[in-house]
Here is the input.
Amino acid sequence: MNGQPSEYAAYNEDAFEAAVRAAQKSLSEGGIPIGAALARGNEVIASGHNERVQHGDPIAHGEMSALRAAGRQRSYRDTTLYTTLAPCAMCTGTIIQFKIPRVVVGEARTFPGEFELLRSRGVEVLVLDDQRSFDMMRSFQQDHPELWAEDIAEDALPEPA
Here is the structure.
């Protein structure tokens, strides 16, 4: 990726683009615009998106959907998870459980995620600060605050006076 620090040398642009497309797909379906992709080296194994609204499934976050789509893997220790938004506590726990060593995040301005926990468990976290991911999430949070609050298990935000 041109202009990025050397730490992004192993960054798989195709995998991140798969995550962005998945987020856009979720949004087009009336869902929460968070997408993820699992890659092993240059190969995108699977992608998925938040499907909580579409399937009424409380744990169908984007990262969970991508892992479900990848199916059983003998090991995840040589994979990278790409996600458009910083992982929540539930998705962070799954990343730690399966020992995924690296997470590439589109943005963390609209939701800070659990970076401290990931890093404390040895997970490398790279934040791209991708404007598309930010714009999609910010617009969704403004247009659907009740769905966003539900997704992160928070009380609905009060209506402005």
Q: What stands out?
A: The mean pLDDT is 91. Strands lie at 35-40, 43-49, 80-85, 102-107, 124-127. Residues 16 and 116 are 22 Å apart (CA to CA). The radius of gyration is 15 Å.
